[in-house]
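hi! just following up on the protien thing from before. the input was this:
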Amino acid sequence: MLKQWSRKFPGLPRKVAEARDFVAALLEDEGSGPVDDALLIVSELATNAVRHTRSGWYGGWFLVVVGFDDDVVRIEVIDAGGDREPLLRSVNSDVEEGGRGLLLVTACAKDWGVQDRPGGRCIWAELARVSA
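and the predicted 3d structure came back as:
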C-alpha cells in the first residue's frame, strides 16, 4: 500500500456510523461507486465486530484501516476476536433479518478475506479504484 490511514473506535454500535464517516472522508475523491461500496463494507464489517466479537464487550474496540494503492482501495476492520470464525451464510428465508453481511461484502468487493492476528482478527476487502 502506498498510503494508509487508521482509526480506533470504541466497540459500541453507535460508533459504526463514525467509522463510515471516517472512510467517507478518506474516499471523497474516489467517485460515488467505490465510496458507496466502501461505506457498505465498513458498515457490515464494523457491525459484525461489535455484534459477534469481543470488540462489543465492555472496554472493547475495533480498528478501521484504509489503504490506497494505484488500483485498489483496501478496507480492514480489525476486531478483538471471538469464538466463531466469520463465514458466508446461506440465507434460506426472505424474512431472516441477519446473516447477509458477508454476502454483501462479497457482492461489492473485488476480493476479501480473514487473517487471524495476535489478540484479534482482521477482515479485509479490496475495491478497484476508478480514479487514481
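Residues 50 and 87 are 16 Å apart (CA to CA).
The radius of gyration is 14 Å.
cheers
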